[in-house]
Amino acid sequence: MKRNLCIVITLILTALVIIAGAVLGDKYYAVVTVIIALLSCVPFLVSFDGNSSRKVVILAVMTALTVAGRFVFAPIPFFKPVTAMVVISAMYFGSELGFLTGALSAVISNFYFGQGPWTPFQMFSWGIIGLVAGILSDPLKRGRIILCIYAVLSGIAYSMIMDVWTTLWADNSFNPERFIASVTASAPITLIYAVSNVIFLLILTPLFGKKIQRIIDKYGKM
Amino acid sequence: MNSFKNLHPGFVLCYFVFVTFFSVFSFNPIYLVSSLMGALLFALMIQGVGAVARSIGGYFLVFFLIAVTNPLFSHNGRTALFFINDNRVTLEAFVYGVVLGVAVVSVLYWFRCFNEIFDSERYMYVFGRISPGLAVAVSMTLRFVPELIHNFRQVNNAQKCLSDNRCRLRRYISSFSAVISQSLENAVITSDSMRARGYSLRGRTSYTRFRFSRRDGIVLGIFIFLAALSVTERHSFSYYPDFVCSDFSLLSAVSCVSFGIIVLLPFLYEVREGLWKFSASRI
């Protein structure tokens, strides 16, 4: 009951923020988008069922692995297993856990790397990548080609969302010219994201599949 | 030099949200410069002169990039300075870029202070308010991260010592994979053990370290009063197509002053605590 109320309030707040942004004019794009990115994460965070100890611990471990991955691969710039880990977590444990792994990894890894106005956008984009991967989990598990396509697309999507953020912050309004400029400037990074996602997903997915199967054999259902 | 940290995390969060949002909301140089000064003073207080001085170069680069690129992308404004490829480069766009640069840098400094003040315990508090289950997950994550990194180093060093000649990336991935197996298995054991100790039973209570004390109430009251004053009649300033500055009235001057006090709040609080400690030491 309390959860449903929270979700309804979040929806109303989101609508109010959008209306307020529209009424106040185009000066406030950056602030409005930050608030909406944050609000979009609230329903998932609120509706998390903390009573199942399995779920809590799996979420903690997957998030910790994601954050640790960001640390461990720190010597290689932009080449990070974060997106791949979020996708894997969603594939094997469902949409909800995928979204939460993405959103929490963003907050907690920025606890070490530095929070900033970009945190809500990272939460949102990793969360959404996880959510969609959870919905597509069956086809993703079946074909390696679909997995590769999703890896490339999520790398591009992540980079694009962050470019939208850069544009909004540098201009305080959405300037298409600047957006194209920042997309072009970040093209090499986008490429590294896409390639690293493909590599990590191709290597880690079968590994995870095996490890999770082993644990199911040993301890019963996850 | 960090008494502000000891205030209630809910209040601290409200304070930072208000200050950063107000800094981006107002495109008025008066508010922005006071916000930047406040953030710098706060950073100097909690991090010391050395750390802040070292950081200035990077922030200046951000400022410079925004200030210089804005006139290249935005051609609004009445006063054309010169032309590049038939595109007007205007004085207004340049000034707007400088103002935006100050806004972004001041927000970055506020976040720098936020990172210093908001430690894991305060994160736990915030997540605990959203959902207690989430707070458990976050606290476990915060424990797992250093543990996993430690395990990774151990495995990786062991592999190195076994005269592993593979390239760095392949060694990293295989060490990472070992860490994954280890931690997945530990996770299942931990969750079983939690259930065995009655984790999922009803009527669990949760522990919070922070209480909303009278001191927090007083500071919050002052903050809300000043915030309300600074919002009521914001002094406005617009850039395109011409610079337009609204007239100063008594209320808008009050607004500027109260925002100035708000950004100095951490400093003033520090001074007050310092005075109290000084007078206590005289007894």
How would you portray this structure in words?
The complex is a heterodimer of chains A (222) and B (283). Chain A has helices at residues 2-24, 29-46, 53-72, 82-93, 95-113, 119-135, 137-142, 144-171, 176-185, 187-219. Chain A has 222 residues and is mainly alpha-helical. Chain A has two domains: 1-47; 50-219, Orthogonal Bundle (Arp2/3 complex 21 kDa subunit ARPC3). Chain B is mainly alpha-helical. Chain B has a domain at 3-122 and 218-282. In chain B, helix 2 (29-73) packs across helix 8 (250-282) and helix 5 crosses helix 6. The longest helix of chain B is centred in the N-terminal third of the chain and has 45 residues, at 29-73. The two termini of chain B are 22 Å apart. Classes of the chains: A mainly alpha (222), B mainly alpha (283). Chains A and B meet through helix 2, helix 3, helix 5, helix 8 and helix 9 of A and helix 1, helix 2, helix 3, helix 4 and helix 5 of B.
CATH architecture of the largest domain in chain A: Orthogonal Bundle
The average pLDDT value of chain B, as a whole number, equals: 86
Radius of gyration of CA atoms of chain A, rounded to a whole number: 18 Å
Supply Rg of chain B: 26 Å
Mean pLDDT level of chain A: 86
Q: What structural class do helix, strand and pairing data of chain B support?
A: mainly alpha
N/C terminus separation of chain B: 22 Å
Which descriptors apply to this entry?
heterodimer; A: 222 residues; mainly alpha; Arp2/3 complex 21 kDa subunit ARPC3; 2 domains; 10 helices; 0% strand; B: 283 residues; two-stranded antiparallel ribbon; two-stranded antiparallel sheet
